[in-house]
Specification:
heterotrimer, A alpha+beta (about 750), B alpha+beta (about 160), C alpha+beta (about 325), B: about 160 residues, alpha+beta, Ubiquitin-like (UB roll), DNA polymerase, domain 1, 2 domains, 5-stranded mixed sheet, about 30% helix, globular, C: about 325 residues, Uridine Diphospho-n-acetylenolpyruvylglucosamine Reductase, domain 2, Uridine Diphospho-n-acetylenolpyruvylglucosamine Reductase, domain 3, 5-stranded antiparallel sheet, 14 helices, 12 strands
């Protein structure tokens, strides 16, 4: 299989030099003449009516050039894409979370901007607030949105297969509750943008977004400006992990401030603002009831699920569609009944974070699976292998599984970790090993229209190639992977290919980072674009060299005629010839991926994804029963990403995911007290450091997905979800104590140990 | 009140008038246009603002500009010489230690400082040396590998 | 911004004089805490008296009597890596090494660590964060405490400098200089046990030196910070148990407004009492407070576990 020149090889990032020299410009690094600094005024109240808002004093602060409120924008209520619309750029009459945007200022420097914010007069009338989702749905709870009587923004009820039969046939039914906590992506670069609204009504926004095409449309809607007058330019982006896809209020705010002042306006979040007002991972509460036969066959699962969305739906309305049913397809489950509720609470809205609900779901489902294994007297790895989704399966939701490395992943992890020798045998040493599995969508469809990727590849007059794709690069390695694909197809050196960051004036419309689709869908588009560019080039080369294009090949940037050992021309020579001859043309190929999928709908049988990725993970721990400290000894991962195009990048993705997974499992939490966020910095929120990174075994299954570019799928989100469940399962193996709430801090573990001792002294 | 600040930045003599409470990070980024050094938190937790001041790695967000009076400042822009990458930069670029790249300048400066004081650090010493720089993308694995690659390469001055 | 001044002080005498003439001035050495407090508007210095230029204030040199003098402006990195400190006062070297990150340690000083402003979840935060808690006694001169809401008075902010525990255990002293002269104070007496008036410094007094007595032998230092590699401690434990059977020290720090010595437990340890008895006694003597992370029961359990391990480890000649 491996006769590739560049695909599957260990290559360096094309932007490495820019990044190691500090030359790569992120949004905060941009400085334009006359640029002003913008800041947002945020509500200090959780829930309140705005009785009076007077920005006049702010305008009088020296150095302040403009102050805007809701009055300065069209009264648009919007949601994410075409999802539930319930938010405005600035709160006009009601604030619903501490951090809710009320106004913004632009000034010559940050000090003046802050002073202006301090001078804006706001009079509030406090309203009762609610912070817990189960409290929020009760009769009489404070209502956040007038059209959601029980604070339920979205409700999805799923009933597939025959759940009643499952209960009837069950030898064992387990019912458990699991809780996961709100955590933040804690990416390195805070949200930021630089906007210019120039005199001819064109708006340009420079920002680190994952979703340039989508942002262009959302901004157009919110400002009521034609899409064609908006240009989004993605700058180098310092991490995102799902967050930077939304319409943050700073985008329209900075644009309007720019219009008012006639100057560019830059707005950068402080680190504290990130915790108060960006888009962290939702906290999930799971009431899971599962029916199994005594031989371990899963018969069905019922789920009562609370998705704590915060004060506005934003992305959550799209997320709950996926996460209310995706994890039903990891194992063969013939019946599911789910009541998924997206609940409003007076906290900041939430968003996507690596896994899109899968880490939370997997914690609940795979923790319970271990408990079921114990009840049945079965080994948890065997239970998983028995029920694992396999190639050719059609899952309970109608999902057709084609390539699937899950059984291989489970077997590999069990073998590599020494599972048989360890599991259930080292309680004396307080050591244990636990496992979990996950599935992830690749390329999920959420509309009946275009749901794919577009790309163009142009071969320049010197034989260099440029890739134009609207999919973003934010560290995950799109640049490298796409350049590899193009170089492989074109037969030119990797160094001859470059790629630009998305710019909606230049790069074609692309869907963005949903369901790990960038390598898959974006890659297919690039591959097809490169193929067409190659076809055009060889056609032209045939004319130039008076040869049959079918007899031509390209190797290392040189054109060979079949049968002749010496190259006849370089790619550059052909391109140069073609460009400068009479009626010259550019050599530019276009490619598109339009997935042959059906729109995702949890209540129907659909085929919403091009393919699926899978993973299995095992975590080995040692527990100190006196202190509750859980030391992670090692982690084994086996990841099904199809054929791995960029091994260095893929390893890096797994490595980063595991540490994020461990943070979610052990240390990270946005701690609230009476609704007030106490943890608003890297340290107190529990961000992992280098000493938290355990020895790590990484394996990629030998899967090849024939529909993917060179057989590839996606790996960006398969290694973060299983870690918490695997760790909790390992702790149980070590000391016989089950913790059903994340994170497993020493305090929680110790409390669980003590509770257990009270129950079984 | 503005006060004169004389310092050497990346080997060059620099004279500026700075506000007495101005922060060195801001002076580097906004006055000297050296935007390689980043702000990630402004409170000494993330290390994205790491520079070398008088031979020691410090958080420039917790340094008043005037503290650098008469001193030597080295930023990421000062590592390469006439376009030739410093061995740390080269090893870093080749180790897969970069994903988003936002922490890269701070990380490289921290590594620079570590290897100056300890040219052959153990893996734990490497972790200690880099722990002041928050990386969310890599899990630190390939960062540690990058340092090992430099030290295995023999000379820091090759 | 115009009123603010940064003064590079040349001598201790000048520093004292300027502070006397400008009560709103703050001494600054490393500034790694001060600049954050200033940013968060918890202090509003009109001027900063920068001490790092004063000759001699950062020096470390042995004394004739076998002790060691450490200048207040010696950085934590210097203290952590100094051969004499590593060799003769290992818990102090370890404690300095345990602070935050290399970047912080390269700038922060031992004087600053000793005099570290007391810390609390509800104090060390921005104005936006604190708007929810406007009555904090320490932050706003108010009437409430949000950590111990039932308290009628007092402040429970923690003394969190990692070096304080070892310095107390080592019976270190500090030299304090004011315009009324000099005095030497034991480090233990430097802390008043209140979160607001946490240091027994007179107005305008500067800490210039740390004076360590003759080395006391082996010692153990442990910092418990499960949340994050850089964080302040949930607690620190310092244990000295010289082999002669006297001079044991058990200090738990970063859990109260001053470092806590378990004196009766020390006496038991001197007598060779079993570890369990020593620890039980120590836990009775140490008053703990429930904070956001770590209620009293949890802290008791974990401190006891660490102490038990430390005592057991100290019975064999064990280098950290």
């Amino acid at each position: 299989m491996d006769s590739y020149r560049i695909i599957t090889k260990r290559v360096n990032r094309p932007d490495a030099l820019a990044k190691v020299t500090g030359q790569a410009k992120f949004t905060a690094d941009l400085k334009f003449p006359g640029m002003l600094i913008g800041k947002v005024l945020r509500s200090p109240h959780h829930h309140a009516r705005i009785l009076h808002l007077d920005p006049a004093a702010a305008s009088r602060v020296p150095g302040v050039k403009a102050v805007i409120t809701a009055r300065d924008l069209p009264p648009v209520v919007y949601g994410f894409g075409d999802r539930r619309a319930d938010m405005t750029v600035f709160a006009a009459d009601r604030v619903r979370f501490k951090g809710d945007e009320i106004a913004a200022v632009a000034a010559v420097d940050e000090d003046a901007a802050q002073e202006a914010l301090d001078r804006i007069v706001v009079e509030y009338q406090d309203l009762p607030a609610v912070f817990d989702p189960e409290e929020a749905v009760k009769e009489g709870a404070p209502r956040l949105h007038d059209d959601s009587p029980n604070n339920i923004g979205v409700r999805i009820r799923i009933d597939k297969g025959d759940m009643d039969r499952a209960w009837a046939e069950a030898d064992l039914v387990r019912e458990d509750r699991f809780d996961t906590q709100r955590v933040h992506q804690s990416y390195a670069e805070p949200y930021g943008c630089l906007a210019e609204w120039d005199a001819d009504g064109r708006i340009t926004v420079y920002t680190g977004t994952m979703n340039a095409s989508g942002l262009q449309i959302m901004l157009s809607r919110v400002l009521k400006v034609p899409v064609g007058r908006i240009r989004i330019i993605q700058t180098h982006t310092g991490g995102s992990f799902g967050s930077k896809v939304v319409l943050n209020s700073i985008y329209p705010a900075s644009a309007v401030l720019s219009r008012k002042t006639g100057r560019p306006v830059k707005m950068i979040y402080s680190r504290e603002e990130e915790y108060f007002a960006s888009r962290p991972r939702f906290a999930g509460r799971y009431y899971v009831k599962t029916a199994v036969k005594k031989d371990g066959t899963i018969l069905g699962r019922e789920l009562n699920f609370f998705y704590d969305a915060g004060a506005y739906c934003d992305m959550a309305a799209a997320m709950i569609i996926v996460c209310s049913h995706r994890n039903d397809s990891v194992y063969r489950i013939p019946a599911v009944r789910t009541d998924a509720k997206l609940v409003y609470t007076n906290k900041s809205p939430v968003g996507a974070y690596r896994g899109y609900g899968s880490p939370q779901n997997t914690f609940a489902f795979d923790s319970q699976l271990d408990m079921i294994a114990e009840d049945l007297g079965m080994d948890p790895a065997e239970l998983r292998l028995k029920n694992a989704t396999r190639p050719g399966d059609v899952t309970v939701h109608g999902w057709k599984i084609t390539s699937c490395g899950l059984p291989e992943a489970i077997e590999h992890v069990a073998a590599a970790s020494g599972w048989k020798e360890k599991r259930g045998r080292r309680r004396r040493l307080k050591q244990g090993i636990g496992m979990a599995c996950t599935i992830h969508e690749v390329d999920d469809r959420h509309s009946d229209g275009f749901a794919g990727s577009n790309a163009q590849v142009e071969i320049l007059q010197d034989g260099q190639a440029v890739i134009y794709s609207g999919e973003g690069e934010y560290g995950q390695g799109r640049d490298t992977t796409f350049c590899q694909i193009a170089a492989e197809v074109l037969g030119i050196p990797l160094e001859s290919v470059r790629i630009i960051l998305p710019d909606t004036d230049i790069t074609p419309y692309s869907l963005g980072p949903w369901g790990s689709r960038v390598t898959y869908s974006g890659g297919i588009a690039v591959l097809r674009a490169a193929e067409e560019a190659k076809r055009i080039l060889l056609q032209e080369a045939g004319d130039m060299l008076e040869a049959n294009p079918a007899d031509l090949s390209i190797q290392e940037g040189k054109i060979f005629i079949k049968g002749l050992s010496q190259p006849k021309a370089t790619v550059g020579e052909v391109a140069h010839f073609v460009l400068f001859r009479k009626e010259g043309r550019r050599i530019r190929g276009s490619g598109q991926d339009e997935p042959a999928t059906t729109k995702m709908d949890p209540t129907k049988q659909t085929s919403p994804c091009s393919t699926y990725s899978f993973a299995c993970q095992a975590v080995e721990v040692e527990v100190n029963e006196q202190t509750g400290e859980v030391k992670v000894l090692k982690v084994w991962t086996a990841n099904d990403g199809g054929n791995i195009i960029n091994p260095i990048g893929a390893e890096g993705q797994i490595e980063g995911q595991v540490l994020q997974g461990l943070g979610f499992a052990k240390t990270e939490e946005m701690v609230f007290r009476d609704g007030h966020l106490l943890t608003a910095d890297f340290m107190t929120v529990g961000t992992p450091g280098p000493f938290d990174a355990p020895p790590l075994h990484i394996y990629f299954t030998k899967t090849y997905d024939p529909t993917g570019p060179f057989g590839a799928k996606g790996v960006a989100e398969v290694a973060a979800p299983p870690t918490a469940a695997a760790l909790a399962n390992a702790v149980y193996d070590a000391i016989g104590v089950r913790v059903k709430r994340l994170p497993l801090t020493p305090e929680k573990v110790l409390a669980a140990i003590q509770d257990q001792r009270k129950r079984d002294p | 009140m503005l006060k004169p600040l004389n310092m050497r930045v990346n080997g060059e003599s620099t004279q500026l008038l700075v506000g007495e409470e101005e922060i060195l990070l801001e002076v580097l980024r906004n006055r000297l246009m050296l935007t390689g050094t980043k702000q990630g938190c402004g409170e000494g937790q993330c290390g994205h603002c790491t520079i070398i001041l008088n031979g020691k790695a410090v958080n420039s967000c917790l340094t008043l500009a005037l503290e650098a009076e008469g001193g030597e400042v080295l930023t990421i822009e000062g590592l390469a010489e006439e376009g030739r990458l410093h061995p740390i930069q080269k090893a870093y670029a080749e180790s897969g230690a970069i994903q988003c790249g936002y922490c890269t300048p701070g990380m490289i400066m921290a590594i620079y400082s570590l290897l100056r004081e300890n040219p052959r650090p153990s893996e734990d010493q490497i972790r200690e040396g880099i722990k002041g720089v928050m990386c969310r993308c890599t899990g630190y694995y390939k960062v540690v590998e990058a340092v090992t690659r430099v030290t295995a390469g023999g000379s820091l001055h090759g | 911004m115009d009123k603010f001044s940064f003064v590079r002080v040349a001598t201790v005498a000048q520093a004292i004089r300027l502070k006397r003439d400008n009560p709103q001035a703050f001494f600054m050495a490393g500034g790694t805490d001060l600049l954050i407090l200033k940013r968060n508007k918890l202090i509003q210095p009109q001027s900063i008296l920068y001490l790092k230029g004063i000759p001699g204030l950062a020096e470390i040199y042995p004394e004739a009597n076998g002790g060691l003098r450490i200048g207040a402006c010696a950085t934590l990195d210097t203290v952590a890596s100094h051969p004499l400190i590593q060799q003769n006062y290992p818990p102090l070297a370890r404690a300095a090494f345990a602070v935050a990150s290399p970047q912080i340690r390269n700038k922060a000083t031992i004087g600053g660590n000793i005099c570290l402003n007391s810390r609390c979840w509800f104090f060390n935060r921005s104005p936006f964060w604190r708007a929810e808690y406007p009555e904090c006694r320490k932050a706003a001169g108010g009437t409430k405490c949000y950590i111990i809401p039932q308290s009628l008075k007092g402040c429970f902010a923690l003394q969190s400098g990692d070096t304080t525990g070892p310095l107390v255990a080592l019976e270190a002293k500090v030299r304090l200089v004011s315009d009324q002269g000099e005095r030497i104070l034991g480090v233990e007496d430097l802390y008043l046990g209140d979160g607001i008036r946490y240091l027994a410094l007179k107005p305008g007094e500067i800490l210039t030196e740390v004076l360590l007595p003759q080395p006391k032998g082996e010692g153990i230092f442990r910092k418990f910070r499960p949340q994050n590699n850089l964080d302040f401690a949930a607690f620190n434990l310092t244990l000295l148990s010289p082999k002669e059977g006297t001079g044991s020290k058990i200090v738990v720090s970063s859990v109260a407004s001053k470092p806590l010595r378990a004196r009766k437990a020390e006496a038991l340890l001197n007598q060779g009492a079993p570890g369990k008895e020593v620890v039980g006694q120590a836990m009775k003597e140490i008053p703990l407070v429930s904070f956001v992370r770590g209620d009293v029961e949890f802290k008791k359990q974990v401190i006891a576990a660490y102490m038990t391990g430390a005592i057991a480890g100290s019975k064999t000649p064990l280098r950290e």
